[in-house]
Amino acid sequence: MPDKLKPAISRRERFLMLDAAWQVAVALLYEVEDLRMVEARFLKRKCCQGLPERDCEAALHTAVGLARTTRRFYEKKCFDLPRTTARYYELLFSLAKLLERKFPSADPHLTMKGCRFVEMHWVL
Asked: N or C terminus: fewer CB in 10 A for the chain?
């Protein structure tokens, strides 16, 4: 079916695909794996079935970039700092601005996932 005739991606489908892309990206932070192999497996997942391959690839690559940037930010800015509420919100705001600047076309859901990643690690 030509691209022009395909129905638009529903919000739910896009959300599920972005969520899965983020999960894969975070897993790559802790595992050394070839991105091309991971991408091939990701494109076969149920969340990508029926969606344009380019959209799924772009979502995965953006999620990987966001996750790596988020982790570097956390390691650089969040260790050995006083854990105050004011500092916490200041860091989240700085991270959100950084992610929006580095990934201007990224879906806001992925940017929020990056902030949630820091939030999750902050409380530990």
From this structure: C
